[in-house]
């Protein structure tokens, strides 16, 4: 999964700025962030910021807080280092925000106001600006035009270039009716034919608008985890403030004069400034990494939740399998021939626009069924996941139906008081054992045969689920299909568990029961009937090709409409959590080390006994304090690349990973400052003499 970790090159439709441009912009922005309103949101850095003004005052008047031998130059030096400390923190955040800002700019260019053809009545249009379109308006778009806003397709069939949004250059075929590909997005271009659609978003609330807000981070809010960590860091800083403040009277008692600038330097060195400076950059980078995978995360919280997910709920059809179910066989029941089944299957599928329905028509035609004008006057009965059936009411009053075997058996029992023949079960099992989906076919309550719909497992699923298992994540396949087909596919794919004959509301039930056990749950979906479950899940990933309600309920949208992307999203979330944990560990370990570097130096002159602690042999007390403070500042920019890129992420269990990181970043955090401070001291001390 190192792909996610390394941040595979993005392929969003969003144009990316060059690295140099981004850095230049971040430098400009980092100065704006000195504003107190920005600083106050980050308590640790706010204390550094305030301290900077105190030492600045001391630079002008070293005797401000009483007589001292400390020079203005020393105080000025401390002030400069504090300035850089705050500036580096500002720069880290600005750099993390930069990519999103650049993306937002390029998306805004897509948003040029185009005109739209609003339908007034059946044969009159009016041409208005796209910005005047409201939810519910009907609009016609033709070949070559930019689609003015989002909507649900009512009529027509057309190929659409969505690369402005998804980055995918292959055109997408759009048409009304199905769960997939029946919506259009403002800003995309229609390449062929025409479409009539109903506007689904008011101005300012379109997908493009939401996308701009999102990548720009305009409404970025701290996640609960970030808030908790911020509070913890603030409390830690306050404790150090008290400790350092009490040092002064203590030292006075020993006749040591500790000057204010040195005390401030000690305070800043002790406070968790490294993580305080990088915390928000880490969070922003996590969202940005998701964007580079063409996943739009509606909040940082969603990305974080993905990192903690323990149960993954997946569909069968279209997620684990290719989903393009094709009719491959007609199995007759006693009393009927294969061609009877083909003819009745065709009648039952004449109005069925799903891929399944069309493949049945195609197979029946291939088996030689002749067109019968009688169907043209029939009435289609649409498939729903609730009834699990579809069919046609023929003009002569006969009812042709097909659907899930259990659903059709119940339908003939309840509607016609006929019991399904014993052979039905065997015929259905024959199909199901192959991992294919059996549809029972009935006419006027008489069961005629079984239609076999075959589907192909997506490649590499087994490896992906094994990988999930190694991360401690349980995978559950929830499908509307029958238990036998479900079992065959579940075994082939290697999922941990499955639920068959699930209606849409069963997905919610499965999610709730997992959540009740304290597990965080992720799921993908695209249909309107997935919307409640997408909202209930901790991580709901909707397909961009899906319906408007699904996209509104979800907290993430995959522009590539690839349900297996959930697996990458989990990796991105985990990497975010691990990066934050690792840098927090490093930061605190670092501060402990700085304490041991600075304190002996501060007391050495007055208390010769302390020199035993002075293992680092730093040149002078001033040099020791300044070196530690410089180290404290420059470690921030040194760690910016790591904060933005994320720490290396390996697929082991969470505990293992934690242990590894505490060891690496904890020990590293203890050792690195000793070396760093010593080196700075060697370089700096000649100048201080
Ligand atoms: N066009 C159709 N006409 C009649 N019955 C259908 C049609 N499409 C699917 N079915 C039946 O309805 C069942 C439920 O469909 P549903 O879409 O809820 O689940 P699914 O697609 O099989 O599985 P998943 O939930 O994993 O996508 C299918 O398993 C099939 O038996
Ligand atoms: K520090
Ligand atoms: Mg389905």
TrEMBL record:
It is an enzyme of class 7 (translocase). It is a multi-pass membrane protein. Residues 114-216 form the P-type ATPase A domain. It is found in: Cell membrane; Membrane. ATP binds at residues 352, 356, 383-390, 402. InterPro entries: ATPase_P-typ_cyto_dom_N, ATPase_P-typ_P_site, ATPase_P-typ_TM_dom_sf, ATPase_P-typ_transduc_dom_A_sf, ATPase_P-type_domA, HAD-like_sf, HAD_sf, P-type_ATPase_bsu_IA. One of its GO terms (cellular component) is plasma membrane. Keywords: ATP-binding, Cell membrane, Ion transport, Magnesium, Membrane, Metal-binding, Nucleotide-binding, Phosphoprotein, Potassium, Potassium transport, Translocase, Transmembrane, Transmembrane helix, Transport. Pfam families: E1-E2_ATPase, Hydrolase. CDD domains: P-type_ATPase_K. It catalyses: K(+)(out) + ATP + H2O = K(+)(in) + ADP + phosphate + H(+). PROSITE patterns: ATPASE_E1_E2 (PS00154). One of its GO terms (molecular function) is ATP binding. The keyword Cytoplasm does not apply. The active site is at 315 (4-aspartylphosphate intermediate). Its EC number is 7.2.2.6. PANTHER family: POTASSIUM-TRANSPORTING ATPASE ATP-BINDING SUBUNIT. The system is composed of three essential subunits: KdpA, KdpB and KdpC. Part of the high-affinity ATP-driven potassium transport (or Kdp) system, which catalyzes the hydrolysis of ATP coupled with the electrogenic transport of potassium into the cytoplasm. This subunit is responsible for energy coupling to the transport system and for the release of the potassium ions to the cytoplasm. Belongs to the cation transport ATPase (P-type) (TC 3.A.3) family. Type IA subfamily. HAMAP family: KdpB. This is Potassium-transporting ATPase ATP-binding subunit. The gene is kdpB.
């Amino acid at each position: 999964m190192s792909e996610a970790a390394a941040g595979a090159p993005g392929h969003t439709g969003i144009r990316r700025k060059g690295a140099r441009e981004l850095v230049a912009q971040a430098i400009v922005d980092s100065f704006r962030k000195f504003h107190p309103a920005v600083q106050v949101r980050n308590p640790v850095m706010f204390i550094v910021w305030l301290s900077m003004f105190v030492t600045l005052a001391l630079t002008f008047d070293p005797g401000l807080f009483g007589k001292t031998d400390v020079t203005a130059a020393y105080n000025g030096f401390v002030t400069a280092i504090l300035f850089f400390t705050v500036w580096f923190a500002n720069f880290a955040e600005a750099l993390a925000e930069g990519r999103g800002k650049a993306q937002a700019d390029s998306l805004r260019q897509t948003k040029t106001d185009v005109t739209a053809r609003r339908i007034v009545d059946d044969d009159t249009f009016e041409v208005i600006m796209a910005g005047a379109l409201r939810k519910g308006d009907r609009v016609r778009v033709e070949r070559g035009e930019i689609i003015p806003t989002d909507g649900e397709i009512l009529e027509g069939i057309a190929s659409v270039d969505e690369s402005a949004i998804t980055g995918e250059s292959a055109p997408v075929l759009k048409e009304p009716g199905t769960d997939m590909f029946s919506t259009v997005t403002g800003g995309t271009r229609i390449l062929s034919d025409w479409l009539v659609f109903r506007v689904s978003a008011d101005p300012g609330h379109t997908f493009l608008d939401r996308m701009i807000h999102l990548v720009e981070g305009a409404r970025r809010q701290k996640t609960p985890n970030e808030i908790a960590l911020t509070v913890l860091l603030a409390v830690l800083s306050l404790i150090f403030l008290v400790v350092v403040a009490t040092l002064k009277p203590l030292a006075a008692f020993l006749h040591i004069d500790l000057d204010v600038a040195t005390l401030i330097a000690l305070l800043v060195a002790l406070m968790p400034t490294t993580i305080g400076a990088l915390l928000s950059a880490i969070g922003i980078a996590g969202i940005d990494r998701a964007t580079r995978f063409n996943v739009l995360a509606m909040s940082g919280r969603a990305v974080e939740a993905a990192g903690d997910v323990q149960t993954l709920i997946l569909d069968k059809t279209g997620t684990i399998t290719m989903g393009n179910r094709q009719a491959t066989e007609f199995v007759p029941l006693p009393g009927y021939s294969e061609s009877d089944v083909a003819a009745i299957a065709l009648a039952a599928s004449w109005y069925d626009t799903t891929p399944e329905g069309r493949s049945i028509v195609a197979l029946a035609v291939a088996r030689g069924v002749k067109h019968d004008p009688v169907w043209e006057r029939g009435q289609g009965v649409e498939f729903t996941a609730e009834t699990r059936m579809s069919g046609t009411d023929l003009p002569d009053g006969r009812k042709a139906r097909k659907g899930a075997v259990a659903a059709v058996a119940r339908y003939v029992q309840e509607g016609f008081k006929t019991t399904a023949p014993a052979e039905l079960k065997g015929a259905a099992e024959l199909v199901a054992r192959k991992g294919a989906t059996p549809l029972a076919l009935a006419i006027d309550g008489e069961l005629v045969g079984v239609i076999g719909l075959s589907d192909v497992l997506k490649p590499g699923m087994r490896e992906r689920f094994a990988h999930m298992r190694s991360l401690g994540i349980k995978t559950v396949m929830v499908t509307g299909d029958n238990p036998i087909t479900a079992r065959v596919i579940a075994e082939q794919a290697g999922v941990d568990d499955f639920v068959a004959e699930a209606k849409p509301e069963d997905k919610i039930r499965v999610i709730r029961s997992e959540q009740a056990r304290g597990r965080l749950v992720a799921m993908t979906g695209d249909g309107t009937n997935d919307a409640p479950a997408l909202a209930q899940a901790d991580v709901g990933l909707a397909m961009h090709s899906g319906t408007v309600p699904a996209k509104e309920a979800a907290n993430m949208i995959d522009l590539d409409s690839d349900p297996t992307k959930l697996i990458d999203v989990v990796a991105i979330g985990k990497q975010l959590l691990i990066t934050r944990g690792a840098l927090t560990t490093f930061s605190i370990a670092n501060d402990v080390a700085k304490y041991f570097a600075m304190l002996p130096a501060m007391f050495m002159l007055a208390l010769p006994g302390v020199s035993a602690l002075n293992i680092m042999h730093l040149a002078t007390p001033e040099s020791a304090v300044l070196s530690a403070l410089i180290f404290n500042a420059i470690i921030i920019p040194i760690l910016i690349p790591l904060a933005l890129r994320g720490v290396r992420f390996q697929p082991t269990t969470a505990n293992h990973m934690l242990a590894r990181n505490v060891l690496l970043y904890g020990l590293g955090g203890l050792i690195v400052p000793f070396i760093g401070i010593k080196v700075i001291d060697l370089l700096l001390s000649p100048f201080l003499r």
